[in-house]
Amino acid sequence: MGQDHTERPGDTGRPGDSGRSSSLAAAFAQEWVQAIAAGASMPMSLAEARDYLSDLSEALLTALSDLHLLKQRLSHQTLHDLQTGLPNRQYLLTHLEKVLEQREPSDVVTLMHLDLDGFSAINDGLGHHAGDRLLDVVARQLERVVADQQAMVARLGADEYAILFEPRNSALDVGALAEAINTELAEPHYLDGTGMSVTASIGVVQRQVAGAEAEELMRAATATLRRMRSRGTRQWELFDPDLDAAHGVQLRLAAAMPGALESGELQVTYQPVVMLDAGRLVGVEAALSWQHPQLGVLPHDQCVHAAERTGLVHEAGQWVLRAAAEQALCWRRRLGDGLPPMVVNLSHSQVQDRGLVPRVSAVLRETGLPPAGLELRAPVVAIRTVAGELAGVGGAHAEHNVQALSKLGLHVGLYDFGGGIGGLRCLADLPVRTVRIAQPVSAQVAADPSRILSQAAQALVHIVRGAGIDVVAFPVDSAEQAACWPWIGANWGLGALYGPPGPPHTLEPLLKTVPGPGRGALR
Length: 523
Known about the structure:
The protein has helices at residues 20-37, 46-79, 89-102, 119-126, 128-145, 174-185, 214-228, 241-263, 300-310, 313-335, 348-351, 356-367, 392-407, 420-429, 439-446, 452-466, 479-488, 508-511; strands spanning 108-117, 151-157, 160-168, 189-191, 194-196, 199-208, 236-238, 266-275, 281-292, 296-298, 342-345, 374-379, 411-417, 434-437, 470-473, 492-493. By secondary structure, it is an alpha/beta fold.
Protein backbone atom coordinates (compact mmCIF):
# COMPACT_ATOMS: atom_id res chain seq x y z
CA MET A 1 0.00 0.00 0.00
CA GLY A 2 3.04 2.24 -0.04
CA GLN A 3 2.86 3.02 3.69
CA ASP A 4 5.04 1.58 6.44
CA HIS A 5 2.89 0.73 9.47
CA THR A 6 5.69 -0.23 11.81
CA GLU A 7 5.78 3.40 13.10
CA ARG A 8 2.56 5.27 13.74
CA PRO A 9 2.14 9.03 13.21
CA GLY A 10 0.40 9.17 16.56
CA ASP A 11 3.68 8.50 18.36
CA THR A 12 4.39 12.23 18.30
CA GLY A 13 1.08 13.18 19.90
CA ARG A 14 0.99 15.47 22.92
CA PRO A 15 1.40 13.44 26.13
CA GLY A 16 -1.47 13.83 28.50
CA ASP A 17 -4.01 14.94 25.85
CA SER A 18 -7.41 13.62 27.01
CA GLY A 19 -8.65 10.67 24.89
CA ARG A 20 -5.45 10.56 22.87
CA SER A 21 -4.73 6.85 23.51
CA SER A 22 -8.21 5.63 22.48
CA SER A 23 -8.30 7.79 19.32
CA LEU A 24 -4.92 6.48 18.17
CA ALA A 25 -6.07 2.89 18.70
CA ALA A 26 -9.32 3.51 16.77
CA ALA A 27 -7.44 5.09 13.86
CA PHE A 28 -5.02 2.19 13.76
CA ALA A 29 -7.87 -0.39 13.71
CA GLN A 30 -9.73 1.46 10.95
CA GLU A 31 -6.65 1.58 8.76
CA TRP A 32 -5.97 -2.10 9.40
CA VAL A 33 -9.57 -3.10 8.35
CA GLN A 34 -9.41 -0.93 5.22
CA ALA A 35 -6.21 -2.62 4.16
CA ILE A 36 -7.77 -6.09 4.42
CA ALA A 37 -10.93 -5.01 2.51
CA ALA A 38 -8.78 -3.68 -0.32
CA GLY A 39 -7.11 -7.05 -0.63
CA ALA A 40 -3.82 -5.80 0.66
CA SER A 41 -1.63 -7.86 2.79
CA MET A 42 -2.10 -7.39 6.53
CA PRO A 43 0.10 -4.58 7.78
CA MET A 44 1.11 -6.63 10.80
CA SER A 45 -0.01 -9.65 12.69
CA LEU A 46 -2.55 -9.44 15.48
CA ALA A 47 0.21 -10.22 17.97
CA GLU A 48 2.33 -7.38 16.59
CA ALA A 49 -0.65 -5.06 16.71
CA ARG A 50 -1.31 -6.01 20.33
CA ASP A 51 2.33 -5.39 21.27
CA TYR A 52 2.35 -2.08 19.43
CA LEU A 53 -0.76 -0.84 21.22
CA SER A 54 0.63 -2.03 24.55
CA ASP A 55 3.88 -0.12 23.97
CA LEU A 56 1.93 2.95 22.91
CA SER A 57 -0.27 2.79 26.00
CA GLU A 58 2.76 2.38 28.28
CA ALA A 59 4.48 5.39 26.64
CA LEU A 60 1.41 7.52 27.10
CA LEU A 61 1.04 6.49 30.75
CA THR A 62 4.71 7.37 31.35
CA ALA A 63 4.22 10.77 29.71
CA LEU A 64 1.13 11.41 31.82
CA SER A 65 3.03 10.44 34.97
CA ASP A 66 5.91 12.80 34.05
CA LEU A 67 3.43 15.57 33.36
CA HIS A 68 1.80 15.02 36.74
CA LEU A 69 5.18 15.19 38.50
CA LEU A 70 6.04 18.37 36.60
CA LYS A 71 2.72 19.89 37.62
CA GLN A 72 3.41 19.01 41.28
CA ARG A 73 6.90 20.49 41.05
CA LEU A 74 5.60 23.73 39.53
CA SER A 75 2.87 23.93 42.16
CA HIS A 76 5.46 23.49 44.92
CA GLN A 77 7.69 26.19 43.40
CA THR A 78 4.71 28.53 43.17
CA LEU A 79 3.97 28.18 46.88
CA HIS A 80 7.49 27.87 48.31
CA ASP A 81 10.60 30.01 48.49
CA LEU A 82 13.30 28.61 46.18
CA GLN A 83 16.17 29.70 48.43
CA THR A 84 15.04 28.24 51.77
CA GLY A 85 12.27 25.83 50.82
CA LEU A 86 9.92 27.57 53.25
CA PRO A 87 6.32 28.41 52.38
CA ASN A 88 6.09 31.80 50.68
CA ARG A 89 3.72 34.70 51.28
CA GLN A 90 0.99 33.26 49.03
CA TYR A 91 1.06 29.88 50.78
CA LEU A 92 1.05 31.51 54.23
CA LEU A 93 -1.88 33.73 53.34
CA THR A 94 -3.91 30.83 51.95
CA HIS A 95 -3.13 28.71 55.00
CA LEU A 96 -4.07 31.55 57.33
CA GLU A 97 -7.41 31.94 55.58
CA LYS A 98 -8.16 28.23 56.11
CA VAL A 99 -7.12 28.41 59.76
CA LEU A 100 -9.45 31.33 60.43
CA GLU A 101 -12.33 29.47 58.79
CA GLN A 102 -11.84 26.28 60.79
CA ARG A 103 -11.09 27.48 64.33
CA GLU A 104 -13.37 28.55 67.17
CA PRO A 105 -14.29 32.28 67.15
CA SER A 106 -12.86 32.77 70.66
CA ASP A 107 -9.46 31.25 69.83
CA VAL A 108 -6.49 33.64 69.60
CA VAL A 109 -4.20 33.60 66.56
CA THR A 110 -0.63 34.99 66.70
CA LEU A 111 1.30 36.22 63.66
CA MET A 112 4.89 37.48 63.72
CA HIS A 113 6.64 39.46 60.97
CA LEU A 114 10.44 39.34 61.34
CA ASP A 115 13.04 41.53 59.66
CA LEU A 116 16.71 40.59 60.11
CA ASP A 117 18.91 43.27 61.68
CA GLY A 118 22.08 44.18 59.82
CA PHE A 119 21.67 41.60 57.08
CA SER A 120 23.01 44.07 54.52
CA ALA A 121 26.34 44.01 56.37
CA ILE A 122 26.60 40.29 55.60
CA ASN A 123 25.76 40.76 51.92
CA ASP A 124 28.02 43.80 51.48
CA GLY A 125 30.86 42.59 53.67
CA LEU A 126 31.05 38.88 52.85
CA GLY A 127 29.17 38.66 49.55
CA HIS A 128 25.74 37.46 48.47
CA HIS A 129 26.85 33.83 48.64
CA ALA A 130 27.36 34.21 52.37
CA GLY A 131 24.06 36.05 52.65
CA ASP A 132 22.21 33.22 50.88
CA ARG A 133 23.81 30.66 53.19
CA LEU A 134 22.73 32.67 56.20
CA LEU A 135 19.15 32.90 54.93
CA ASP A 136 19.05 29.09 54.86
CA VAL A 137 20.51 28.92 58.37
CA VAL A 138 17.94 31.39 59.69
CA ALA A 139 15.12 29.33 58.16
CA ARG A 140 16.28 26.21 59.97
CA GLN A 141 16.84 28.13 63.23
CA LEU A 142 13.31 29.51 63.19
CA GLU A 143 11.92 26.04 62.51
CA ARG A 144 13.83 24.72 65.52
CA VAL A 145 12.50 27.44 67.83
CA VAL A 146 8.88 26.61 67.01
CA ALA A 147 9.36 22.83 66.66
CA ASP A 148 7.23 22.20 69.76
CA GLN A 149 4.53 24.63 68.59
CA GLN A 150 1.79 24.20 66.03
CA ALA A 151 3.28 26.83 63.75
CA MET A 152 4.26 27.63 60.17
CA VAL A 153 7.50 29.46 59.30
CA ALA A 154 7.43 31.31 55.97
CA ARG A 155 9.79 33.55 54.04
CA LEU A 156 8.18 36.77 52.82
CA GLY A 157 11.09 37.91 50.66
CA ALA A 158 14.54 39.50 51.00
CA ASP A 159 15.51 39.12 54.69
CA GLU A 160 11.96 38.96 56.05
CA TYR A 161 10.18 35.97 57.55
CA ALA A 162 6.84 35.27 59.20
CA ILE A 163 5.69 32.79 61.81
CA LEU A 164 2.02 31.85 62.13
CA PHE A 165 1.06 30.17 65.38
CA GLU A 166 -2.15 28.16 65.19
CA PRO A 167 -5.03 29.62 67.23
CA ARG A 168 -5.43 28.51 70.83
CA ASN A 169 -7.76 29.43 73.67
CA SER A 170 -5.28 31.88 75.23
CA ALA A 171 -2.66 34.28 73.90
CA LEU A 172 0.93 33.10 73.58
CA ASP A 173 3.71 34.72 75.62
CA VAL A 174 5.05 36.89 72.82
CA GLY A 175 7.93 38.30 74.85
CA ALA A 176 9.30 34.84 75.65
CA LEU A 177 8.94 33.75 72.02
CA ALA A 178 10.74 36.85 70.73
CA GLU A 179 13.58 36.32 73.19
CA ALA A 180 13.88 32.64 72.24
CA ILE A 181 14.01 33.56 68.55
CA ASN A 182 16.75 36.14 69.00
CA THR A 183 18.75 33.90 71.31
CA GLU A 184 18.73 31.21 68.62
CA LEU A 185 19.56 33.64 65.80
CA ALA A 186 22.47 35.09 67.76
CA GLU A 187 24.28 31.73 67.65
CA PRO A 188 27.06 32.18 65.05
CA HIS A 189 27.18 30.11 61.89
CA TYR A 190 30.68 29.65 60.49
CA LEU A 191 31.44 30.03 56.78
CA ASP A 192 35.07 29.82 55.66
CA GLY A 193 36.15 30.53 59.21
CA THR A 194 33.93 33.59 59.67
CA GLY A 195 31.20 33.39 62.29
CA MET A 196 27.98 35.03 61.11
CA SER A 197 24.83 35.76 63.06
CA VAL A 198 21.95 38.19 63.06
CA THR A 199 19.09 39.27 65.25
CA ALA A 200 15.55 40.19 64.28
CA SER A 201 13.09 43.00 64.83
CA ILE A 202 9.61 41.56 65.21
CA GLY A 203 6.14 42.99 64.70
CA VAL A 204 3.39 40.92 66.32
CA VAL A 205 -0.37 40.84 66.01
CA GLN A 206 -2.61 38.76 68.28
CA ARG A 207 -6.32 38.66 67.61
CA GLN A 208 -9.34 36.48 68.20
CA VAL A 209 -10.44 34.44 65.20
CA ALA A 210 -13.88 36.04 65.25
CA GLY A 211 -13.93 38.85 62.69
CA ALA A 212 -10.25 38.44 61.79
CA GLU A 213 -9.22 38.54 58.13
CA ALA A 214 -5.99 37.08 56.78
CA GLU A 215 -4.97 40.13 54.72
CA GLU A 216 -5.60 42.49 57.63
CA LEU A 217 -3.55 40.35 60.03
CA MET A 218 -0.65 40.39 57.59
CA ARG A 219 -0.94 44.17 57.15
CA ALA A 220 -1.14 44.77 60.91
CA ALA A 221 1.99 42.71 61.65
CA THR A 222 3.92 44.45 58.87
CA ALA A 223 2.79 47.94 59.93
CA THR A 224 3.82 47.23 63.53
CA LEU A 225 7.29 46.14 62.37
CA ARG A 226 7.76 49.22 60.18
CA ARG A 227 6.76 51.64 62.96
CA MET A 228 9.11 49.97 65.43
CA ARG A 229 12.16 49.98 63.16
CA SER A 230 13.39 53.42 64.28
CA ARG A 231 13.77 52.20 67.87
CA GLY A 232 16.82 50.11 67.12
CA THR A 233 17.62 46.43 66.66
CA ARG A 234 16.46 43.27 68.42
CA GLN A 235 13.14 44.84 69.36
CA TRP A 236 9.61 43.48 69.30
CA GLU A 237 6.28 45.23 69.51
CA LEU A 238 2.66 44.19 69.75
CA PHE A 239 0.12 45.72 67.38
CA ASP A 240 -1.58 48.81 68.86
CA PRO A 241 -4.86 49.76 67.14
CA ASP A 242 -4.69 53.38 68.32
CA LEU A 243 -1.16 53.88 67.00
CA ASP A 244 -2.15 52.12 63.81
CA ALA A 245 -5.13 54.42 63.29
CA ALA A 246 -2.97 57.53 63.78
CA HIS A 247 -0.33 56.10 61.47
CA GLY A 248 -3.02 55.40 58.89
CA VAL A 249 -4.06 59.05 58.94
CA GLN A 250 -0.47 60.10 58.25
CA LEU A 251 -0.16 57.64 55.38
CA ARG A 252 -3.39 58.88 53.82
CA LEU A 253 -2.18 62.46 54.12
CA ALA A 254 1.09 61.53 52.43
CA ALA A 255 -0.76 59.80 49.61
CA ALA A 256 -3.11 62.78 49.10
CA MET A 257 -0.49 65.51 49.23
CA PRO A 258 0.47 65.56 45.52
CA GLY A 259 -3.17 66.21 44.67
CA ALA A 260 -3.38 68.91 47.34
CA LEU A 261 -0.41 70.71 45.81
CA GLU A 262 -2.00 70.51 42.38
CA SER A 263 -5.47 71.64 43.53
CA GLY A 264 -4.29 74.62 45.58
CA GLU A 265 -5.09 73.22 49.04
CA LEU A 266 -1.48 73.87 50.05
CA GLN A 267 -0.70 77.47 50.96
CA VAL A 268 2.22 79.49 52.25
CA THR A 269 1.53 81.37 55.48
CA TYR A 270 3.61 84.10 57.14
CA GLN A 271 4.33 84.80 60.80
CA PRO A 272 6.24 87.68 62.42
CA VAL A 273 9.53 87.25 64.27
CA VAL A 274 9.95 90.10 66.78
CA MET A 275 12.39 91.48 69.32
CA LEU A 276 11.33 90.29 72.77
CA ASP A 277 12.20 93.56 74.51
CA ALA A 278 10.65 95.97 72.00
CA GLY A 279 8.25 94.02 69.84
CA ARG A 280 9.97 95.32 66.72
CA LEU A 281 9.75 93.14 63.59
CA VAL A 282 13.06 91.46 62.75
CA GLY A 283 11.92 88.80 60.31
CA VAL A 284 9.00 87.04 58.66
CA GLU A 285 8.88 83.24 58.78
CA ALA A 286 7.21 81.46 55.86
CA ALA A 287 5.57 78.09 56.46
CA LEU A 288 3.53 75.48 54.65
CA SER A 289 -0.16 75.10 55.45
CA TRP A 290 -2.76 72.63 54.18
CA GLN A 291 -6.42 73.59 53.99
CA HIS A 292 -7.61 69.99 54.26
CA PRO A 293 -11.28 69.50 53.32
CA GLN A 294 -11.96 67.05 56.17
CA LEU A 295 -9.29 67.72 58.81
CA GLY A 296 -9.18 71.51 58.61
CA VAL A 297 -5.94 73.50 58.66
CA LEU A 298 -2.84 71.32 59.01
CA PRO A 299 0.33 73.08 60.27
CA HIS A 300 3.77 73.22 58.69
CA ASP A 301 5.39 70.36 60.62
CA GLN A 302 2.56 67.95 59.80
CA CYS A 303 2.71 68.92 56.13
CA VAL A 304 6.46 68.41 55.94
CA HIS A 305 6.21 65.05 57.72
CA ALA A 306 3.66 63.88 55.14
CA ALA A 307 5.75 65.21 52.25
CA GLU A 308 8.88 63.43 53.51
CA ARG A 309 7.08 60.09 53.23
CA THR A 310 6.48 60.37 49.50
CA GLY A 311 9.49 62.32 48.22
CA LEU A 312 7.23 65.29 47.48
CA VAL A 313 9.16 67.26 50.08
CA HIS A 314 11.62 68.55 47.46
CA GLU A 315 8.89 69.79 45.13
CA ALA A 316 6.81 71.27 47.95
CA GLY A 317 9.89 72.81 49.58
CA GLN A 318 10.96 74.44 46.33
CA TRP A 319 7.42 75.74 45.83
CA VAL A 320 7.43 77.30 49.33
CA LEU A 321 10.87 78.82 48.73
CA ARG A 322 9.81 80.41 45.45
CA ALA A 323 6.50 81.68 46.82
CA ALA A 324 8.24 83.18 49.86
CA ALA A 325 10.89 84.87 47.70
CA GLU A 326 8.26 86.32 45.38
CA GLN A 327 6.28 87.63 48.35
CA ALA A 328 9.38 89.17 49.93
CA LEU A 329 10.19 90.93 46.66
CA CYS A 330 6.61 92.17 46.36
CA TRP A 331 6.77 93.71 49.85
CA ARG A 332 10.16 95.29 49.13
CA ARG A 333 8.90 96.93 45.97
CA ARG A 334 5.91 98.36 47.81
CA LEU A 335 7.44 99.19 51.20
CA GLY A 336 11.18 99.60 50.60
CA ASP A 337 14.35 97.55 50.42
CA GLY A 338 15.19 97.74 54.12
CA LEU A 339 12.63 95.19 55.23
CA PRO A 340 13.88 92.30 57.41
CA PRO A 341 14.63 88.99 55.68
CA MET A 342 12.14 86.34 54.74
CA VAL A 343 12.85 83.15 56.72
CA VAL A 344 12.31 79.66 55.27
CA ASN A 345 12.99 76.51 57.30
CA LEU A 346 14.47 73.83 55.05
CA SER A 347 13.37 70.25 55.57
CA HIS A 348 15.77 67.48 56.53
CA SER A 349 15.84 66.15 52.96
CA GLN A 350 16.18 69.59 51.40
CA VAL A 351 19.23 70.67 53.36
CA GLN A 352 20.98 67.36 52.55
CA ASP A 353 20.18 67.63 48.83
CA ARG A 354 23.23 68.10 46.60
CA GLY A 355 21.15 70.25 44.26
CA LEU A 356 19.97 72.70 46.93
CA VAL A 357 22.41 75.55 46.19
CA PRO A 358 21.70 75.65 42.42
CA ARG A 359 17.96 75.61 43.14
CA VAL A 360 18.23 78.49 45.61
CA SER A 361 20.42 80.42 43.17
CA ALA A 362 17.80 79.91 40.45
CA VAL A 363 15.03 81.27 42.71
CA LEU A 364 17.06 84.38 43.55
CA ARG A 365 17.97 84.94 39.91
CA GLU A 366 14.45 84.41 38.57
CA THR A 367 12.64 86.45 41.24
CA GLY A 368 15.24 89.21 41.58
CA LEU A 369 15.28 89.00 45.39
CA PRO A 370 18.70 90.01 46.79
CA PRO A 371 20.41 87.22 48.77
CA ALA A 372 20.37 89.30 51.98
CA GLY A 373 16.57 89.34 51.76
CA LEU A 374 16.39 85.60 52.43
CA GLU A 375 17.32 83.54 55.48
CA LEU A 376 17.40 79.77 55.24
CA ARG A 377 17.53 77.62 58.37
CA ALA A 378 18.54 73.98 58.64
CA PRO A 379 17.51 71.39 61.25
CA VAL A 380 20.45 70.53 63.49
CA VAL A 381 19.88 66.76 63.21
CA ALA A 382 20.32 66.91 59.42
CA ILE A 383 23.91 68.11 59.94
CA ARG A 384 25.24 66.61 63.16
CA THR A 385 24.32 63.72 65.43
CA VAL A 386 23.82 64.13 69.17
CA ALA A 387 27.42 62.98 69.63
CA GLY A 388 28.67 65.75 67.34
CA GLU A 389 29.53 63.60 64.33
CA LEU A 390 28.35 64.40 60.82
CA ALA A 391 24.96 62.83 60.12
CA GLY A 392 26.39 60.43 57.56
CA VAL A 393 26.95 61.39 53.93
CA GLY A 394 23.83 63.53 54.06
CA GLY A 395 25.26 65.48 56.97
CA ALA A 396 28.37 66.29 54.96
CA HIS A 397 26.20 67.54 52.07
CA ALA A 398 24.15 69.63 54.50
CA GLU A 399 27.24 71.24 56.02
CA HIS A 400 28.56 72.07 52.55
CA ASN A 401 25.19 73.54 51.55
CA VAL A 402 25.02 75.81 54.59
CA GLN A 403 28.50 77.13 53.93
CA ALA A 404 27.79 77.64 50.21
CA LEU A 405 24.52 79.47 50.89
CA SER A 406 26.31 81.83 53.26
CA LYS A 407 28.91 82.57 50.56
CA LEU A 408 26.07 83.50 48.22
CA GLY A 409 25.14 86.24 50.67
CA LEU A 410 22.12 84.61 52.30
CA HIS A 411 21.56 84.59 56.04
CA VAL A 412 21.81 81.04 57.38
CA GLY A 413 20.53 79.69 60.68
CA LEU A 414 19.52 76.59 62.60
CA TYR A 415 16.22 75.42 63.99
CA ASP A 416 15.21 72.66 66.41
CA PHE A 417 18.28 73.66 68.43
CA GLY A 418 18.39 71.92 71.78
CA GLY A 419 22.04 72.26 72.71
CA GLY A 420 24.20 69.17 72.97
CA ILE A 421 27.51 68.49 71.29
CA GLY A 422 25.94 68.26 67.83
CA GLY A 423 24.31 71.66 68.04
CA LEU A 424 27.40 73.31 69.48
CA ARG A 425 29.60 71.81 66.75
CA CYS A 426 27.28 73.36 64.16
CA LEU A 427 27.69 76.77 65.81
CA ALA A 428 31.47 76.37 65.92
CA ASP A 429 31.90 75.18 62.33
CA LEU A 430 29.22 77.04 60.38
CA PRO A 431 28.49 80.74 59.66
CA VAL A 432 25.23 80.64 61.63
CA ARG A 433 23.49 83.97 62.33
CA THR A 434 20.30 82.83 64.08
CA VAL A 435 19.18 79.85 66.14
CA ARG A 436 15.58 78.89 66.81
CA ILE A 437 15.15 76.97 70.06
CA ALA A 438 13.59 73.51 69.74
CA GLN A 439 9.93 73.38 70.73
CA PRO A 440 10.38 70.63 73.39
CA VAL A 441 13.00 72.76 75.13
CA SER A 442 10.62 75.71 75.21
CA ALA A 443 7.84 73.55 76.62
CA GLN A 444 10.04 72.22 79.41
CA VAL A 445 11.34 75.67 80.32
CA ALA A 446 7.81 77.07 80.48
CA ALA A 447 6.69 74.31 82.88
CA ASP A 448 9.75 74.23 85.12
CA PRO A 449 8.85 75.05 88.72
CA SER A 450 12.28 73.99 89.97
CA ARG A 451 14.02 76.40 87.55
CA ILE A 452 16.72 73.77 86.97
CA LEU A 453 15.86 73.44 83.29
CA SER A 454 15.57 77.19 82.96
CA GLN A 455 19.02 77.68 84.42
CA ALA A 456 20.46 75.06 82.06
CA ALA A 457 18.78 76.78 79.10
CA GLN A 458 20.09 80.12 80.34
CA ALA A 459 23.68 78.83 80.33
CA LEU A 460 23.25 77.43 76.83
CA VAL A 461 21.69 80.59 75.41
CA HIS A 462 24.38 82.67 77.07
CA ILE A 463 27.01 80.70 75.11
CA VAL A 464 25.12 81.17 71.85
CA ARG A 465 24.52 84.88 72.38
CA GLY A 466 28.17 85.31 73.36
CA ALA A 467 29.08 84.13 69.87
CA GLY A 468 27.05 86.97 68.36
CA ILE A 469 24.17 84.72 67.31
CA ASP A 470 20.54 85.78 67.69
CA VAL A 471 18.33 83.32 69.57
CA VAL A 472 14.67 82.87 68.65
CA ALA A 473 12.38 81.62 71.42
CA PHE A 474 9.69 79.34 69.95
CA PRO A 475 6.83 79.14 70.54
CA VAL A 476 5.93 82.23 72.55
CA ASP A 477 2.18 81.94 72.96
CA SER A 478 1.58 83.81 76.22
CA ALA A 479 2.77 86.85 78.15
CA GLU A 480 4.24 84.56 80.82
CA GLN A 481 6.43 82.84 78.26
CA ALA A 482 7.46 86.17 76.77
CA ALA A 483 8.51 87.36 80.24
CA CYS A 484 10.74 84.36 81.02
CA TRP A 485 12.73 84.22 77.79
CA PRO A 486 14.62 87.54 78.13
CA TRP A 487 15.80 86.31 81.55
CA ILE A 488 17.04 83.12 79.89
CA GLY A 489 18.79 85.21 77.23
CA ALA A 490 16.76 84.85 74.01
CA ASN A 491 16.39 88.16 72.18
CA TRP A 492 13.83 87.24 69.49
CA GLY A 493 10.46 85.53 69.70
CA LEU A 494 8.03 83.70 67.42
CA GLY A 495 4.57 82.53 68.37
CA ALA A 496 0.87 83.17 68.63
CA LEU A 497 1.43 86.08 71.07
CA TYR A 498 2.84 88.14 68.22
CA GLY A 499 0.53 86.81 65.53
CA PRO A 500 -0.45 83.40 64.17
CA PRO A 501 0.58 82.15 60.71
CA GLY A 502 -1.58 83.89 58.13
CA PRO A 503 -1.87 85.23 54.59
CA PRO A 504 0.46 88.02 53.42
CA HIS A 505 -1.93 90.92 54.08
CA THR A 506 -1.96 90.18 57.84
CA LEU A 507 1.75 91.09 58.04
CA GLU A 508 1.58 94.40 56.22
CA PRO A 509 0.62 96.59 59.25
CA LEU A 510 3.74 95.33 61.05
CA LEU A 511 5.94 95.73 58.00
CA LYS A 512 4.91 99.36 57.70
CA THR A 513 6.19 100.05 61.23
CA VAL A 514 9.74 98.97 60.36
CA PRO A 515 12.11 102.00 60.44
CA GLY A 516 13.72 103.43 57.32
CA PRO A 517 16.86 102.34 55.40
CA GLY A 518 19.26 100.19 57.38
CA ARG A 519 16.35 98.96 59.49
CA GLY A 520 15.17 95.54 60.60
CA ALA A 521 17.45 92.58 61.03
CA LEU A 522 19.74 93.31 58.10
CA ARG A 523 23.29 93.48 59.40
